[in-house]
User: Fold Iron ABC transporter permease from Butyricicoccus porcorum.
Amino acid sequence: MKQTRCLRYLAGYIVLAALLLLLFLLNLNAGSVHLSAGQVLHILSGEQTDHTAIIWEIRLPRMLAAAILGGALSVSGFLLQTFFANPIAGPFVLGISSGAKLVVALVMIFALGQGIVLNSAALIVAAFVGSMISMGFILLISNQVKKMSLLVISGVMIGYICSAVTDFVVTFADDSNIVNLHNWSMGSFSGMNWSNLRTMTVVVFISLLLTFLLSKPMGAYQLGEMYAQNIGVNIRRFRIELILLSSILSACVTAFAGPISFVGIAVPHLVKSLFRTAKPILIIPASFLGGAVFCLFCDLLARTTFAPTELSISSVTAVFGAPIVIWMMLHRGGKTQKG
Assistant:
């Protein structure tokens, strides 16, 4: 039995790794300028061609950013699902991404108006502040309502309010660069560069390492607060750590790519279904790989489906993620009624 589980886990990781490699190759080849696998390999090996800049300055940074940020968003969703003990909790649904979007938009508009150039760290800090404000409202509401459905509805309403205020501010901003802000507010991996990539890599992987170190108390917490307390977990500190790590990960995504919907809900669920377990020590790295695969796939469609017109990444992730969430809710509802 144990050997069968180990083989299933190994097969799950192999499937995710194979899909990731395949999507890496497809994303490098596909675009307004199609390149063969041989051409891409020659460019990556250092050969200078007419298309070198396309690979090194446009496609490769964008592809790596989509993988890193997609993985971060998926892990952030898994942390929130663990925190609230509900599979439909996620940074987008609970309004956390929208709060980050609002504060980043306000900071960017103020900076543009003053002629200030913001660096990546400033955007991440702004997004983190917005995430924490939204999370604060969610926690206050969670103390007043006991039904998760009401909490999720409250999160959706907070998200709508933040998005409405953001759209209002963006609409009446008078800076000529506001077009870039509008594109960012719709969600996109375009415009990534190596400087952005270095910053997000440091933030995401430090957060992932800290998250992985919480695997054991997280596994105990999944079995109930009383059980976790009995084996020595400091519940108050543990919950704060979950909130902070989830907010940092989702804030990093929002700062660089804008709000991206449904990844944080759908991917952890798909990964848990693939591995048939919710053990954090297995699901945290698997969620990261799954989020990378999902966002690379969606970004490929966003770039190529109606090329040269590019779709909003959030629109594409919603097309694939929303049906999964609906299925989850129907499946859980059916189980509840049978129980």
About this structure: The mean pLDDT is 85. The CA atoms of residues 230 and 315 lie 45 Å apart.
